[in-house]
Write a structure and sequence with these properties.
With about 500 residues, this protein is of the alpha/beta class. Helix content is about 35%, strand content about 20%. The protein has helices at about 35-50, 75-90, 130-135, 150-165, 180-200, 210, 215-230, 245, 250-260, 260-275, 290, 300-310, 330-335, 350-355, 395-410, 455-460, and strands spanning about 25-30, 60-65, 95-100, 110-115, 140-145, 145, 170-175, 205, 315-325, 380-390, 410-415, 420-425, 435-445, 490-495, 500. An eight-stranded mixed sheet has the order 8-7-1-2-3-4-14-15. A five-stranded antiparallel sheet has the order 10-9-13-12-11, with helices on both faces. The protein is globular.
């Protein structure tokens, strides 16, 4: 029995590429299980009436795959362990739990568990999202409107596992978009169509049961409550910058109060991020800490954070930045994606006078760059250098910053949004390129990092040679990027005595 159509979408273009000789439909349905209400509702509906959704009565053609980010809420893990796993064991449904093997794609994907009788929902794998964020000294980012953390820790893992599992066979992929998320489903469908067309075959067919059945969020939550007798909480990483969307602010703060140790970890991550970049709180320039201080009920959470901050080993980081001037439209128009022969107008606007007096020649605009021709510059790419110059207690780190500031006549200043104190010895200007540099004390754990040509460019721009502090260690030598070889690298974990070992 085939699943009914979802909704009207533009027909996928027919590929003229020859399908591989081994291509065939696998007959398998893969449910991307995020532990939340939507995907749990779909799973419960599959269990209750499999044939309605084109599944075999024994559900032998269903695979539930959970990609472990390592930062899920404890109550979500507990809900699934108590109320969902027993149902999967009874129905003998296959549950596969996967995670990133490390920071690079070459580290592969680890299968933490693959069972038709699962008894454990994994809280983390070898490499958590929070591990990556702490090493970089940042919070989750958006790039060109995409949730990069979700792509790297969920989408990529699922794609690699599916490629290894199915090869050139196609499968049906189920994602829990509800009826109020039609736009997200249409974008997802379009992306998959493009991937199928590029591959010259059907990699997978997306299917969104909740949209087909017109189930909105309220209906989804009511259905889960009816089936298992307990209200389900929304599933999202504790440090998610969309926590105001994933859950209402009140619900999110209530959850933080219920798990003060989780809240303290997130607040400490945000503190480090803002120490290295004033404008990089969990909600941009606005911070989670700022929001929590507005409600007296969060006092215990803030106390837990203050205690964890006091007890955490600290470091002093010397943070230097170079802000390049952005490429101008003229440069992109005449020099394309890569500018190998820059002119002054590649990074600086041409005034109206220049445009009129020096029109484009045969190959590009002509002008020697007189003062009346040069307009403003805009901020472009930023290079950041982070070097550890002290390690010790919080008190020791703060004392180090004050001592160096006094010795070198540096300006001590607290951040407008973060309240974090920094010792500045260079402040970025109003035009670009420009640079900034300061010392700041914060919890240790941020990896030292800078581009190979940073020192050369910093000296060219500022006239300064070297740093104010003395680095604790040498910069790690640049390593060539490890290649995946084009084939998915799948590792299998084995749990012995509660300890998970990676083969």
């Amino acid at each position: 029995m085939s699943a009914p159509a979802l909704f009207d979408l533009p027909a996928a273009p027919v590929s003229t590429a020859a399908a591989p000789a081994t291509f065939r439909p696998s007959g398998i349905t893969v449910l991307s299980y995020g532990l939340g209400a939507d995907s749990t509702a779909i799973l419960l509906r599959f269990l209750a009436n499999p044939e309605r959704y084109g599944l075999r009565a024994d559900l032998s053609d269903l695979v539930v795959v959970h990609s472990v980010t390592g930062d899920e809420w404890p109550d979500s893990l507990d809900f699934v362990k108590r109320l969902v796993l027993p149902l999967l064991r009874t129905a003998r449904v296959r549950l596969v739990q996967i995670a990133r093997g490390g920071p690079e794609d070459a580290d592969g994907v680890v299968i933490l568990d693959d069972s038709r009788a699962p008894r454990r929902i994994f809280a983390q794998g070898p490499w958590r999202l929070s591990d990556e964020l702490r090493a970089a000294g940042t919070v989750p980012q958006m790039a060109r409107g995409k949730r990069t953390c979700s792509i790297k820790f969920k989408g990529w893992c699922l794609d690699q596992w599916a490629a290894a599992e199915f090869g050139t066979s196609s499968f049906r992929r189920v994602i829990g978009y509800h009826a109020g998320e039609m736009d997200r489903a249409e974008v997802d469908s379009e992306i998959q169509r493009e991937l199928n067309e590029e591959a010259g075959r059907t990699i997978c067919e997306p299917y969104y049961p909740l949209i087909h059945e017109r189930m909105g969020r309220a209906a989804v939550e009511a259905y889960v409550l009816e089936r298992v007798g307990e209200k389900i909480r929304k599933s999202y990483c504790a440090q998610c910058p969309f926590s105001g969307v994933c859950a209402s602010r009140d619900a999110h703060e209530e959850r933080l109060r219920a798990h003060p140790h989780v809240a303290a970890d997130v607040l400490r991550m945000e503190y480090v991020s803002q120490a290295l970049n004033e404008r990089q709180g969990l909600y941009g320039e606005k911070s989670l800490r700022g929001r929590l201080t507005q409600d007296g009920r969060n006092a215990a959470v803030l106390d837990a954070f203050a205690l964890s901050l006091e007890q955490a080993p600290h470091a002093v980081y010397e943070v230097r930045r170079i802000y390049h001037a952005a490429r101008r439209p003229d440069c992109k128009a005449w020099h394309g994606k890569s500018c190998r022969s820059p002119r002054w107008w590649c990074r600086q606007a041409r005034t109206g006078y220049c445009v009129d007096a020096h029109p484009a020649g045969r190959f590009e605009p002509w002008c020697s760059g007189d003062d009346e021709c040069r307009g403003e510059t805009k901020k472009g790419q930023a290079w950041r250098s982070v070097r550890t110059v002290y390690e010790g207690t919080r008190a020791g780190a703060e004392a180090y910053v004050w001592a160096v500031a006094a010795e070198h006549g540096m300006r001590l200043e607290r951040g407008e949004h973060s309240g974090v104190e920094r010792a500045h010895y260079m402040t970025d200007g109003d035009s670009y390129p420009t640079a900034s540099a300061y010392l700041v004390a914060a919890p240790e754990g941020v990896h030292d990092k800078q581009r190979p040509k940073f020192e050369e460019r910093f000296t060219q721009l500022t006239g300064r040679v070297g740093m104010v502090g003395t680095p604790v260690r040498e910069l790690p030598k640049p390593q060539p990027r490890r290649l995946t070889g084009g084939a998915p690298r799948i590792l299998r974990a084995k749990t012995i005595g509660g300890v998970t070992l990676i083969a």
